[in-house]
Amino acid sequence: MANGNHIRSFAKMFTNLTSGQRREFERALADLENSRELISLETSLDILKRSPDSALPIPQPIVTDSVRGGIIEWSALPDQKINFYEVDISSTSSFASFTTVSTFSTASVIDGLTATKFLRVRGVRRDGTTTPYSSVQTMAPRLFDITTHSEEDFYIPIVGTDANTILGGTTSALDYTPINPNGNSMVWGFASIYGNPSVAMLGLDNITIDLIYRYIDTDGVTPVPNSETTVWSNSVGEFWSSTAIGPVTIPHPDLNQSLEIRLDVTDTIDDLKGGQYTEVFWAHLNSLELGIS
Fold first, then answer.
1. What is the pTM of this model?
2. Domain carrying residue 132
3. Which helix (H) or strand (E) is 258 found in, with range?
4. Closest CA to 131 of 97, 181, 85
């Protein structure tokens, strides 16, 4: 019968691969072997024969409830022999019966809950030895939740020919970590604009309004590469213009990342020195998180 060492070294039999291709192939086979270890009947039986070692460190999980689910997280244990973690989920605190979820990370997202569940975590070494279980944690999901974020401003002159952010952006009310990474935000708003006469008299499209979002990484500062997206755009070709913005749906970022929404107005003809310029008299944006998984 093939064993793990054979599967992981199978790429060496393909002598026509470059060294880089062989390394990628070996990584893919390693992932396949890890998946086999987690879902095979052999592994399921091994779970029943785990050997707890009370001398090993114990996970210290933290539970964050969300709509119809939640997130359980813990710090990596200071034991290099820990191969993966098991999260037990039960309807009773005694764990008379439970479901086990295995993960190679230090967090697990639990979805689709309609009642309180009890959770515990332990680390598993490759030899089958396990750490003691963590303390029992309670996950009490909300069946429905709505969180709103809004911002408005008045009398904003549009200066220069670059985009002017008039609402949202970094550290604003529209810069937030969603309650559920598997959900969406619905965004809509309104803007009243006086158009630059040198543009509006000719009905040109040099004045634009753009609704933009981007994701910020878990450090709260670094933008996620290639995440900036314009989800709504409109041009202003009149002296007076009142525009409804959206509604549009924006997908939430990954766990612990934040969502940053902003409204930009651009006038590519700069007549500020001549006393003619575009001005946003009033603008308002709303973001509504339904949080349903």
1. 0.55
2. 46-139
3. strand 258-267
4. 85
